[in-house]
Every structure is written in C-alpha cells, then in structure tokens.
Specification:
single chain, 226 residues, alpha/beta, Metallo-beta-lactamase, Chain A, seven-stranded mixed sheet, four-stranded mixed sheet, RibonucZ/Hydroxyglut_hydro
Length: 226
C-alpha cells in the first residue's frame, strides 16, 4: 500500500449527509487523504483541502454551485488551485497562515473568521513554525472540520478508538477543540464521525497521552514487520 497515491484512481465517496459530502481520491493509499465539500448556510458549495480526481465535479454538482475553495492546513495545498481555477472561484486561506498563498496558482482571498457568506467560521488551532492548522465550524449545521489534528486513518488510531489525535500531537493534544460541540466531525485523513462527534472528540483528547505509548509501539511494529 503506497503512502500517497498518484495518477488515475477511482475515488471513494465518504461522509455523505444533507449538508455535504467527502471523497478519498486514492482509496488504496495509506494516508487516506480525505477531501470535503460543505453547503453554506445560504446555499453554495465550499470545497475543503481537495485532492482532485475524475468524478469530483459531478459529485460537487449534486450539492450546488461551487462558491470557493479553502485550505485549512499549511501542508494541504493539495489541488486547491486546480479546483478553484476550474470553477473560477478564489482559494480562501486564513490570514495568519504563512507560506501558502504565494504557492497557489489561483486568486487568493485571506480569511479573518468568516468563510465568505457560508456561515462557517475559520478558527486558529495550531500556529507554529512547523504546523499551521485551522478548523472550520458551522453553527447552522453543527459540523466541525479538522484537517490534521484528529483523524481516523489507521495510523491515528489504537485500541477501540473511533477518532484519534495525530501521533505528533499525542503528548500535547489540542484541548481547545473542546469548545466545539459538533454533531459531526470531518477529518483530513479517513472517514469522519457523523454522530455524537462531541463525545468522540472528548474521548480522543482525554485518552491521547495515556494511549500514546501503545500507538507508537504499534507504529514501530508496523514499520518493522509490515
């Protein structure tokens, strides 16, 4: 299984609900890079950290016209510019996020809090020289999007976890996520949690440090023995 897929692939749809949908462009890759589209409070589609592939535009069209593309993690430029140019919309980047806008070959809009007129707010989660991450939250539909700090891909999880803290954050988990009480959480690696997301987040944060040794041991064992 490759770490990151490339070239033609048959995408796998994930996380479908009334207000949005997700996809994994390369289902066979280890990273399980997930992309999402959410519907704004007043309509219109907002595409988040997209990995482009055949069939994406047909999937987006089921939800309406694309109003914008957003990058929520400095490492998730992915195919944001390509998708934005194709739909003739800007790429939205948090105003405090550096080293992203200049690398996007598309019109860029900087975001303070509000993602256009979508009804979604963009909130700073991590801002360090090595890691800049924002989360997206919509009070109108109780959806939280966390691009990296939480995930459900295999390397995020240990034991009975349904949602896990990123391995690099296990010893200092982002407890500011507790201020959100979402019905669903969408993540940048793996499928989201579409019910009782607040409970899953609380469990992930509460057990992050305690379960870290087990996760690290499982990771080393997987690397050594496949």
């Amino acid at each position: 299984m490759p770490l990151k897929g490339s070239g033609p692939a048959r995408m796998r749809e994930i996380d479908r609900y009334d207000g949005g949908v997700g996809w994994i462009a390369h289902p066979d890759e280890q990273m399980q890079r997930a992309s999402h589209a959410v519907v704004g409070e007043n309509g219109g589609v907002w595409v988040l950290d997209p990995v482009d592939t055949d069939g994406v535009d047909d999937l987006l069209a089921e939800y309406g016209e694309v109003e914008g593309v957003a990058v929520l993690l400095d490492r998730h430029k992915r195919d944001a510019a390509t998708v934005a140019r194709r739909h003739d919309v800007p790429v939205y980047v948090p105003e405090w996020m550096s080293g992203v806008a200049s690398e996007l070959d598309a019109l860029v809009e900087r975001v303070h809090v509000d993602l256009g007129d979508s009804g979604f707010g963009v909130h700073e989660l991590i801002d360090t020289p090595l890691w800049q991450e924002a989360v997206l939250y919509g009070e109108h539909d109780e959806t939280l999007v966390v691009p990296e700090a939480l995930g459900t891909a295999e390397y995020f999880l240990t034991g009975e976890e349904t949602l896990g803290v990123h391995p690099a954050l296990r010893l200092k988990p982002p407890r500011s996520l507790r201020r959100f009480a979402p019905e669903r959480v969408l993540v940048g690696h793996g499928e989201g949690v579409l019910g009782d997301a607040a409970g899953a987040i609380a469990d992930a944060l509460r057990g992050a440090r305690r379960r870290a040794p087990r996760l690290y041991a499982e990771t080393v064992r997987s690397m050594l023995f496949g």
